[in-house]
Prior knowledge:
The protein folds into two domains: 41 residues, Arc Repressor Mutant, subunit A (Orthogonal Bundle); 80 residues, 2-Layer Sandwich (Alpha-Beta Plaits), CATH 3.30.70. 15% of the residues are buried. The protein is built from five helices and four strands.
Amino acid sequence: MEKRIKLNDTDIQIIKCLHKDARMSASAIADGLNLPESTVRHRLNRLVNGGVIEFVAQTSPLSVGYPVWIMMEIEVEALLIRKVAQQLAELNEVYIVYTTTGAFDISAGATFRTNKEFVDFLAGPFAGIKGIRRVTTRAILEVYKRQFKFLPPVDGD
């Protein structure tokens, strides 16, 4: 089990600043929160090293030449769920893989430049993964919200 980092209100305020602008400097955060810059830098390092926050450059597949954006719900042989998930995660076209409960065992998202690329993926690398019983796919046509901004509770809440 992962060790949970204790957070306080200052940590949450720093995270909120970064939600507004992930490029905000430690000095700007410190100024905005009326804290010493050294405090903000220390807490940011603790939050990053503890896995609480991650800095990534997130691109929109639809805006960079990958208009075929597919979500897949995959039924898998029970003994092979983790192995199949790991193999899917290794494929370049796949950007997210997670195991689930319910009617399907794994959900995954992938992007393609054309429908032909998607069919080639299904008939090629995807079909080569042992243990997949069934897949249901959905194309994403328009995106109205896509963000990963979660506020953890302050310890004691």
